[in-house]
Design goal:
Elements: E1 22-26, E2 53-59, H1 64-71, E3 80-86, H2 89-98, E4 103-106, H3 110-116, E5 121-129, E6 137-141, E7 157-160, H4 165-176, E8 185-188, H5 191-199, E9 205-209, H6 212-218, E10 222-226, E11 236-241, H7 242-246, H8 248-270, H9 272-283, H10 287-293, E12 299-302, H11 306-321
Parallel strand pairs: 2-3, 2-4, 7-8, 7-9
Antiparallel strand pairs: 1-3, 4-11, 5-11, 5-12, 6-9, 6-10
Helix pairs in contact: 1-8, 1-9, 2-3, 9-10
C-alpha cells in the first residue's frame, strides 16, 4: 500500500528489479475462508481467463497476500495470482511498466517519477483512506533532538527514500515553511538504509511511513511533521501495466482481480483484530506494532476522481519546480479507471 512498507528485506542500492522484487507463492485454498465464495466469476463464464496468471505487486506489506490466504478471496478465481514484494514504490512502478507485475499499490509520488521517466503504466484506482486524520507517514527526529518545527530542518540531513511518497512529504513540508531542497541535505536512502542512518545518528531526521515511523516513535523518536493534508495525501494509488490494460480480455480479468482485492480490504476494515495479525505476519513485526499502525491502513478502493488528478498534478508541478524531476508530467493521460464510477469498496457486503 502506499507508504506502507513491508518488513525491511535488505539494502536497496538502485531501482534494479532483481534487487527489489521478491516472488511469493500463489494464494492457497482455505476452506474456512470467509470470502471464498463472495465473488462469482466462474470458468464457465470466462474460460479464457484460465490461461492467465496475474502478479500483484505488494508495496508496503499492506497485508494483501496474508489477507488473500485468510479470506480466500482468490480461491474461486478462474485465473492464478501470485504476489511480488517490493521495499517501496518506484521499483514497483518500474515493474508494472515492464510487465513484470500486472497490478500494484503505491503512494502519491511513484506515479509521478515513473511518468517523468516515461514508463508505460496507468493509475487505475485509488486506495482512499477512511481515516484521513491519521498520518500514514511522518518526518521523525531521534530522541533528544532539539528540532521543534519543520523550519528547524534548515541545514540538516534528512533521510528520504527517493521518488517515494515520503519524498513528497519532505518536499511539501519544506515548502510550507519557505524552504527548498537546497536549504537542507536530502540523503536518499532506501527504507533499510534509512533506518540504519536514523538509528546511528547519521541523519537529523527521517521522512518515512508506517510501520517504521510508529516503531521508531515507540522506541523514543518524535514526530516533527505529520503526513496529513494539506502537505501530504493519505490515499494511495493502484497502477497497472499498459500491456495488460490494452488487452481487452486481460483488462476484464484484471478488473476482477482489483475487485477481489477491494473486497478483502473491506473485510479487513471490519475485522481489525484479524487484520492486525495479518499485518504482523506479513511485515514480520510484533502484533503490538501492527496494531499501532492499523488506523492508517483503513482504506476503501474507489475509481480515480478529478480531485485525485488535481492533487497529483499539483504534486508533480512541485517536484518539477524543486528540480526533483526534469520533465513535466501531465497526470490525466496516465489515469485509466478500471472500476465503474461510484464504485466504493467500503459499501460492499462482506462476511465477518
Amino acid at each position: 500500500m502506499r507508504k506502507r512498507t513491508t518488513r525491511l528485506i535488505g539494502a536497496l542500492g538502485s531501482l534494479a528489479l532483481a534487487g527489489t522484487l521478491v516472488a511469493c507463492g500463489s494464494s492457497s485454498s482455505n476452506s474456512a475462508a470467509p470470502l471464498s465464495n463472495a465473488v462469482d466469476a466462474s470458468d464457465a463464464k470466462h474460460p479464457e481467463w484460465s490461461t492467465y496468471t496475474f502478479t500483484i505487486g505488494d508495496n508496503g506489506g499492506d497485508g494483501s497476500q496474508a489477507l488473500a490466504k485468510l479470506t480466500g478471496v482468490f480461491d474461486n478465481a478462474p485465473y492464478k495470482v501470485k504476489f511480488a514484494r517490493f521495499t517501496y514504490g518506484p521499483p514497483l512502478v518500474q515493474a508494472a511498466a515492464s510487465g513484470d507485475i500486472d497490478l500494484g499499490s503505491v503512494g502519491d509520488v511513484p506515479p509521478i517519477t515513473g511518468a517523468a521517466k516515461e514508463y508505460g503504466f496507468k493509475v487505475v484506482a485509488v486506495n482512499r483512506s477512511l481515516r484521513p486524520d491519521q498520518a500514514a507517514e511522518n518526518i521523525i527526529v531521534p530522541k533528544g533532538s532539539k528540532l521543534k518545527t519543520a523550519a528547524d530542518l534548515k541545514g540538516k540531513k534528512i533521510a528520504v527514500p527517493q521518488g517515494s511518497s515520503a519524498h513528497g512529504l519532505a518536499l511539501n513540508a519544506l515548502k510550507s515553511v519557505g524552504l527548498t531542497p537546497k536549504d537542507v541535505k536530502l540523503t536518499f536512502l532506501d527504507p533499510a538504509a534509512g533506518a540504519t542512518a536514523f538509528n546511528t545518528g547519521k541523519v537529523d531526521a527521517w521522512s518515512i511511513w508506517n510501520p517504521q515511523s510508529a516503531i521508531a516513535v515507540k522506541n523514543g523518536a518524535r514526530i516533527l511533521v505529520k503526513g496529513l493534508p494539506p502537505i501530504d495525501q493519505t490515499s494511495s494509488y493502484y497502477v497497472a501495466s499498459d500491456r495488460s490494460l490494452k488487452d481487452k480480455t486481460k483488462r476484464a480479468a484484471l478488473t476482477d482481480v482489483l475487485e477481489r482485492l477491494s473486497r478483502e480490504f473491506a473485510w479487513a476494515v471490519k475485522n481489525p483484530d484479524q487484520y492486525a495479525q495479518a499485518l504482523s505476519k506479513e511485515q514480520g513485526i510484533p502484533l503490538s506494532d501492527a496494531q499501532a499502525s492499523l488506523a492508517a491502513y483503513s482504506n476503501r478502493v474507489t475509481p480515480v476522481e478529478q480531485s485525485d488528478i488535481d492533487l497529483e498534478q499539483k504534486l508533480a508541478d512541485a517536484f518539477l519546480d524543486a528540480g526533483q524531476i526534469t520533465k513535466k508530467v501531465d497526470v490525466k493521460p496516465i489515469t485509466d479507471n478500471l472500476l465503474p464510477a461510484g464504485y466504493d469498496s467500503s459499501k460492499l457486503k462482506v462476511t465477518s
